[in-house]
UniProtKB/TrEMBL annotation, chains A, B:
The lineage of its organism: Eukaryota, Viridiplantae, Streptophyta, Embryophyta, Tracheophyta. InterPro entries: Chorismate_II_sf, Chorismate_mutase_AroQ_euk, CM_AroQ_sf_eucaryotic. Its main location: cytoplasm. Keywords: Amino-acid biosynthesis, Aromatic amino acid biosynthesis, Cytoplasm, Isomerase. Its EC number is 5.4.99.5. Gene3D superfamilies: Chorismate mutase, AroQ class superfamily, eukaryotic (1.10.590.10). It comes from Rhynchospora pubera. This is Chorismate mutase.
Length: 281, 281
């Protein structure tokens, strides 16, 4: 009986060991500690990404909403300034080797140029086929511009469109990187308990997978931590030690916990589910 | 006697009033409070820029030094990855209207494209001829890559060259913007006391101007404040309230005060001096 069960898991185990080794080689240093790819190391990378997201939002908040930057008729070439800039920069970054890691997903993947030779990096690291196809960037683009941006920028137009959309792109990339790191989260969770996930994967049960991937207490802690980071990083720092109670925050800390609650964590789980559904293919 | 003196200052006064009005129209909102262009408002903008510089350094420190990104032979097209990326992004940003404000100075100004029509911003805001020619970007490029970068990045090579040079560019732009805001500093200082600066300007006495622009106590306070910001912003934030004493900083706070002491403040004063030398032309 036990032997039968073990035999049933053997192909899974071999595949797992292969993928484990493969994915470890792709991991950023912060995730791959001593070549170990663990939930702790992935979690540390996600926590570090929170700082990047908070910094990027604070930097975007230097400028008002600047509606003309998002008007598709403004440049006269069919693109908004934002889309024109993101497309151009993604093309440039692809040429120098970006978009080859599972968490770096372009917003406009069509017609991206190949890396210029010789990029050692691009030869060493290839996208895993299953993880490469998972993207929620369309959803990120939409919520960022239509829902999030008005929450943390002031109304108005100061004409600084180039700086504005460059800041938008940094926000989009940081948020996208965090959300698509869900591929690593899914991989380590699956690795730790394949028996928990395999039935739901086989039956393509998205709801069941979503349940398995949801930990309310962890999510509450994340929301509290990002709000704390927003408070610390967006305060006006002075040399007066008694000044900290009077600070005006550059962004509302509650907007950051809302961002995580409404979009970042749910979309991360969508990425995890979609990755898992491809995991046994 | 008094009348003669007043007459001598009259052309200066007229020029000043013109420039005052002109420069106010160029100022970012944070500097131009109620259309008033004062030392306080310029100082507030410089203090805000400190946060941007600290954030950008923390973000760059996510990656090790990554020497191949700076090797001019790596891409095979004559440029290092860093230079290729900065040139490409500056070109893209120029197309959408950047580099038209006195503090936004490109690192590679030759052959920058014109803004795509119709950009309302570019029609409204033109560079002031005297301030546009003042640039210390060559010095910034040099100290950043050869001296600063090794101080706050770890040794090593993780292959993330595209993300690395994108982060470098954010650092370079923030540092350059802060330093070239010296043009505003010089303008308000001159405006407040033209009689103090005019003799040294007329005799092209750079040393005297540098003396007039140096306030040791202010510089010491700036160094302390940026170090404090680096400590606050680069700490590892946890929900454990008793954890703050044990934090590991993502960048050494002393590197940031050193950056200001050795490069940012001296080069800002070089910009101020060069601007003043053109101020009466």
């Amino acid at each position: 009986m036990l032997e039968t069960k073990l035999k049933a898991f053997l192909p899974l185990l071999i595949q797992h060991l292969f993928l484990y080794h493969y994915l470890s080689s792709l991991l950023p240093i912060s995730m791959a500690c001593n070549n170990k790819f663990t939930l702790d190391s992935v979690r540390d990378a996600l926590i570090r990404e929170e700082d990047s997201i908070v910094f990027s939002l604070i930097e975007r908040a230097r400028f008002p909403y600047n509606a003309p930057a998002y008007d598709p008729s403004f440049l006269g070439n069919g693109f908004s300034i934002a889309e024109f800039y993101v497309r151009g920069t993604e093309s440039l970054q692809a040429k120098i080797g970006r978009y080859q890691k599972p968490e770096d997903v372009p917003f406009f993947p069509k017609d991206l140029p190949s890396p210029l030779p010789p990029t050692k990096y691009s030869q060493k690291v290839l996208l895993h086929p299953a993880s490469a196809s998972v993207t929620v960037n369309e959803a990120i683009w939409k919520f960022y511009f239509t829902e999030l941006l008005p929450l943390f920028t002031t109304k108005g137009n100061d004409g600084n469109y180039a700086s504005t959309v460059a800041s938008d792109f940094v926000c989009l990339q940081a948020i996208s990187r965090r959300i698509h790191s869900g591929k690593y989260v899914a991989e380590v969770k699956f690795t730790d308990a394949p028996q928990d996930y395999s039935p739901a994967i086989s039956s393509k049960d998205r709801d069941k997978l979503m349940d398995l991937l949801t930990f309310v207490a962890v999510e509450e802690a994340v929301k509290k931590r990002v709000e704390k980071k927003a408070r610390l990083f967006s305060q006006n720092v002075t040399l007066d030690e008694n000044d900290s109670g009077k600070t005006q925050y550059k962004i509302n800390p509650l907007v950051v916990s809302h961002l995580y609650d409404k979009w970042v964590m749910p979309l991360t789980k969508v990425v995890e589910v979609e990755y898992l559904l491809l995991r046994l293919s």
